[in-house]
Amino acid sequence: MRPKVPHLRGRSALPRARPLGEARSDSRRSSMWVMPEHRSVVVGVDGSPNSIAALHRAAREALERHARLDVVRVLETDGATAPPRLVRTAREWSRLRRLVAGSIPRAQHLNTRLRVVRGAPGEALARAAEHAELLVIGARVHSEHGNPLGGDTVPVVRERARCPIVICADHSTASETP
Q1: Residues 58-76: pLDDT tens digits?
Q2: Which residue from 71, 91, 107, 154 puts its CA 20 to 30 A from 146's CA?
Q3: Looking at the predicted structure, is the pLDDT value of residue 109 above 60?
Q4: CA atoms of 116 and 68, how far apart (whole Å)
């Protein structure tokens, strides 16, 4: 028997945003906050424990900010050994959907958008977060390149992103690395 995986519906438990002072159709008073459509928290996810930690943090941030959660998977462009572009993108989107559905409790009622983009991870994440309120990424605790934040992605994101950045690490795996 296959375990049931909760599916994200893209719906939010929050009231739909409307201009201040616009009356509701029923007798209840309108809430006084406005949720613009462009409010978002972007998170880069590749399936690693650090990116899952970043996904959890980004979900909390999106809930607190009443913002949409944009989950981005970056496919690095490689040589001719890769499957056809459209097939790989569709397959990665399905994997991303299952990963997010298994990581974020359905009860959180997040408005979520999944995106698969191509390019260098640092540059692609900075572009994806161009209009975001926050960008959340995962990073290794230790790096083979001597970078304390791990890898090449973090320095590029820090240099190019226009919004605040949160860098997360899954410290449960930190003791396993040399």
Answers
A1: 999 999 999 999 999 999 8
A2: 71
A3: yes
A4: 16
Q: How far is CA 11 from CA 15, 98, 115, 130, 174, in A?
A: 10, 17, 17, 23, 35
Question: What's the average model confidence in pLDDT over 18-36?
Answer: 45
1 domain residue, yes or no: no
Nearest to 158 by CA among 125, 113, 112: 125
Q: How do residues 113-159 score in pLDDT, each as one tens digit?
A: 999 999 999 999 999 999 999 999 998 766 565 555 567 788 899 99
Number of domains in the chain: 1
* Residue 18 falls inside a structural domain: no
The answer to whether 151 and 144 have CB atoms below 8 angstroms apart is no
Return d(Cα 45, Cα 34) in angstroms, integer: 29
In a domain, 9, yes or no: no
The answer as to whether 16 is a domain residue is no
pTM confidence score: 0.70
Give the range of the structural domain holding residue 116, as residue numbers without chain letter.
Answer: 40-176
Q: For the domain that residue 118 is a member of, what is the CATH number? A: 3.40.50.620
